[in-house]
Every structure is written in C-alpha cells, then in structure tokens.
Design brief:
Number of strands: 14
Main location: membrane
Subcellular location: Cell membrane
GO cellular component, one term: plasma membrane
Strand order of the largest sheet: 2-3-10-5-9-8
InterPro entries: ABC3_permease_C, Macrolide_Exporter_MacB
Distance between the termini: 31 Å
Largest sheet: 6 strands, mixed, barrel
Strand content: 15-25%
Family: Belongs to the ABC-4 integral membrane protein family.
C-alpha cells in the first residue's frame, strides 16, 4: 500500500509530465478500441450483408467448371448435372440451413433502333430466392416477380445506362411514365440508390418536349453461353433496390429462371415436359458448342440415316400451358447456407465428401473462393485497418517510453536520494511500475470507455457509406457500423497492458541504474 501512496505523490508532484503521458495513453487506448470495433464491424457486416443476403456460406458449381470466381466471371458457367438429385441430397443434410439454385451470365439488351447494352443477369425462382436471402430485394417501382411468372427486374443504375445509350425510358409493366421516378419530386428522387440527377434531368427535358419514348419490355439475348442462345422479349415487372450493399451489386438484373434458360440456350423445365430420346436430350442439355464433342455426349452407337435438327428439337420443347417444375431445368450455381457451429472449411470439406460419395459431379467452394475479388479486397482493407491499429500500438509504446525515460533522467536527484537512504533497486522498480499502471488505469481506461461510447454512438447514427462501392466493401455494408463485443473490451485491456509494460521497461532500467553518487555529481 505504501508504494501506491508514494507513486501517487510522485505523479502529483510531476503532474505536467504525468498529464502528457496520460493523454498519450488515452489517445492510444481510444484509437485501438475504435480500430478494433471497426474491424469487428467490417467482419460482421460482410457476414451479415454478403453471406446472409447474397452468396451464402458455400457455393456449388459443376465439377467440370474451371472458373472458381463464379459470382464475378464474365464467362458462361457449366450446367450443374442432375440438379434434382443434388437437391434431394442437400435436403438430407442436417448441417445445411437452406440453399438457393440459380443461373447467372452476361446478356445483351438488344435495341433494333439503337445501341445494344449488356447486363449481369441472375435467373432465379424469385420468391424462393427472397426467402433464402432475407428479402434483400425491395421494389422501387412496379412489383417483384412471382415464382413461375415471366419477367425482368432491373435497378435504377441499369435504367440510367439504357437511357444514356438508347434514349428511351423504361416504365414497369402497367405503369405510365408519369407514375415513375422521372416525374417524382426531388425528395423522392434523392431517396433512390445509385441515381444520377443529371440523367433524370435529361430524361425530363425529352419528356417535356414530347420526344421521350417509353418501353415496358426488353429484348434479351444470352452472351457466351452457347451458339444456341436466342433473343427473348421479356416484360419489365419492376425497378428494384437491394436493402444492403446496393452499390456493390447495382449492375445485377433478375430474370425468371425459364426465360433465362431460353435466352441462354439452356435446357428448360418445359423441355423435360416433352419426352425425348436419350440422345436428343443429350443434345439439348449441352450448354456450349464444345460440349457437343465431349465423351459423355458423343458415344458409339448404331449408324442412322436420319440426323437430329436442333431447331426442331427446341421447337418440340416449347413450354406447355401446364404447371412445370422449375427444378427440372438447368442451373449453374447453388448458394448454400450452413447452420452455426461449423467453420467454412469444415462445412466445405464435409459437403464435398458427401457429394463425392454420392457420385454427384459438383464442386463445393467457400463464398470467399466463389467471389474472390470482393473477398480479397475486403480482407486487404480490413488488414490495412489492423495494420493501423498495430501502428498506433507501437507508436504509443515508443512515445510513452521516451517520455518516461526523460522523466527518469530528470528525477536523478530524487531517485539517488532515495537510494542513499536505503531504497533498493526492486523498490525503484515497483515505484515506476506503480506510477505507470496508475496512469494506464486512469487515462487508458478512460480511453477505452470513451472509445466504446463513441463506437456505440457512431453505430446508432447509421452514417451512410453506400455512395462509394469501395468504402461499402471496406465496412461490410451501407453504413459505418463499428461493433464493440466483450472480446473487443478484453482485447483493448490486453493491448493497453502490453503497451504499459513494454513502455516502462527501458525507463525502469534507467532508474534502477541511478546511484547516490551519480545524483550528487549531477547536482
């Protein structure tokens, strides 16, 4: 107890230097606490917004698909073989929470009177997709798709680019141009995500002059999937926004799964409603011209004089006016959500073993592998934040160490006198440690506490970062949301303790070496 009284008295006597050291400890603890919370918030944000609302924990692709970055690649993807069998297998696994099959690819938006555009299209059973990904798509104009309904959903970003390139305005089916965002008030327009006010102004000028052409359907043709893709006229059901990370995915377009299959030349569920021979089905199942010459399609068989006409086969398989099972057609991606309790690698390994044992030619990837460009950028930015925290950590050590060292040198007479009256080196050591820990407890503790309060306040404010795609990826969402967890608090205390111990070692050694003779000679 005596040592603490002496330490407190010394701090008060040298309160100027003590205040400087304390402020450095406060600032270091504050920045480390906020930095740790930002990193934690970014990780949680990526899990909540990317995994829960877009990709799932795992993604399944065809085993013969060489591309791993299946969410970002511009090339077409191989079709997953025997999806009904895969679906049945996934439904049997107790560690799988849910899954959503889909197709994706680049499509051309054709305009006979102007330029063509491209768009990144997802073919889905839309209501099933929404249930899996937490209703992340919300309508801005018109309405969303229903399962089994033909139609297209686009973002305001896509509508803008189509207008810029082709000069016409898109209004969802059943809506007039007067009912769209074009004639909405400025307050309503500002609420739209990813909207360029200049394009709305240009469209409004054309409308006022009576020159604005309005369409409510687009002609879509799949690109790069096969030589058999066709142009399909698709009604536009609505303009949509993503609730989270809209700027990251604003180029996405949703299309009903059957229309996607027709546009990209994939086997559709309607195809399976028509009875074909095995060889005819193999021809229709191919998703690229090269696949026609793979060993599993071209087989030794009896020579026949009559060949197959692909156009005739496709005409035979036009959708019937009956209810069809969409799962009987082609998919090239399955997003899988895993129940809590398993790491990504554990879940991937276990699922791959199950797939291999069942003889299903499908490869499992983690979401980070399936969207590697985005995950790598997020990891780099979060790593940069971690480097910043570590940098603050070492700067605090160096600055505090130098300040304490100067204080020890200036107290040579005081420490030498203490040594002259019998104080041992261990007493000087304890005194320096006590002084530093008192400062650390008061100022460092205050820094951690204020840092926690600041993070809670910033999180509650919901500061928007969605206007910048890179910042949105950095923070894992559309808002700046630092998260303080019990582990963050413990980590902050540990970091502060390490800073305190490392910073006091060198000054303490200087103080231990001070002798009474040195004190007298300096005086």
């Amino acid at each position: 107890m005596l040592i603490w009284k002496i330490a407190w008295r010394n701090l008060w006597r040298h309160r100027g230097k003590s205040l400087v050291i304390g402020l450095i400890l406060f600032l270091g603890a504050f920045l480390m606490t906020v930095g740790n919370a930002i990193i934690e918030g970014a990780k949680e944000g990526m899990s909540e917004n990317m995994v829960a609302r877009f990709t799932g924990h795992l993604v399944l692709k065809a085993a013969n698909e060489k591309e791993n970055d299946v969410w970002n690649t511009m090339s077409s993807l191989k079709v997953i073989p025997d999806y009904p069998g895969l679906k049945a297998l996934l439904q049997q696994q107790d560690f799988i929470e849910s899954f959503a099959p889909m197709t994706r690819g680049m499509a051309m938006i054709l305009n006979p009177d102007g330029n063509s555009d491209d768009t990144y299209v997802f073919g889905v059973n839309f209501e099933d997709y929404q249930r899996t990904f937490l209703e992340n798509v919300t309508p801005v104009e018109g309405r969303l798709l229903r399962n089994g309904e033909r139609g297209l959903l686009i973002t305001e970003y896509t509508r803008e680019h189509i207008f810029d390139d082709n000069g016409f305005w898109i209004a969802p089916e059943g809506m007039t141009v007067e009912q769209t965002a074009l004639l909405a008030d400025q307050a309503a327009q500002k609420k739209l995500k990813g909207v360029n006010p200049e394009y709305l102004a240009d469209a409004k000028k054309k409308y006022d002059r009576g020159e604005l052409k309005t369409v409510n359907e687009l002609i879509i043709m799949g690109v790069g999937s096969s030589s058999f893709g066709s142009d399909v006229r698709v009604p536009i059901k609505g303009i949509f926004e993503f609730k989270n990370m809209h700027t990251v995915w604003q180029e996405a377009t949703f299309m009903d799964i059957e229309t996607f299959r027709e546009a990209f030349g994939y086997i559709s569920a309607a195809n399976n409603a028509v009875e074909l021979t095995d060889q005819q089905q193999a021809v229709l199942n191919t998703d690229a011209m090269d696949d026609l010459f793979q060993s599993d399609v071209v087989q030794e068989t009896e020579i026949q004089t009559e060949g197959y006409n692909l156009t005739e086969l496709q005409q035979q398989t036009q959708r019937a006016d009956v209810h069809i099972d969409a799962d009987q057609g082609a998919y090239n991606i399955v997003a899988v959500k895993v129940k809590p309790g398993m790491t990504l690698e554990e879940a991937k390994t276990r699922l791959q073993q199950i797939l291999d044992a069942a003889g299903i030619r499908v490869t499992a990837l983690t979401w980070k592998q399936g969207i590697s460009a985005v995950s790598q950028f997020a990891s780099i930015t979060q790593g940069a934040l971690l480097v910043f925290v570590v940098f603050i950590f070492f700067v605090a050590i160096i600055v505090i160490m130098n300040t304490l060292s100067m204080a020890a040198i200036e107290r040579v007479a005081e420490i030498g006198m203490m040594r002259a009256v019998g104080a041992q080196k261990w007493f000087v050591t304890k005194m320096f440690l006590s002084e530093t820990f008192i400062l650390s407890f008061i100022f460092g503790g205050a820094g951690i506490l204020i840092g926690i309060i600041t993070c809670i306040a910033l999180s509650a404010m919901g500061i928007a970062v969605s206007e910048n795609e890179l910042v949105s990826l950095m923070f894992g969402g559309d808002t700046f949301n630092p998260i303080v967890t019990p582990w963050n608090m413990v980590l902050g205390i540990l970091q502060l303790s390490v800073v305190t111990v490392l910073a006091v070692v060198y000054p303490m050694l200087i103080a231990r070496k001070i002798t009474p003779l040195e004190a007298i000679s300096r005086d």
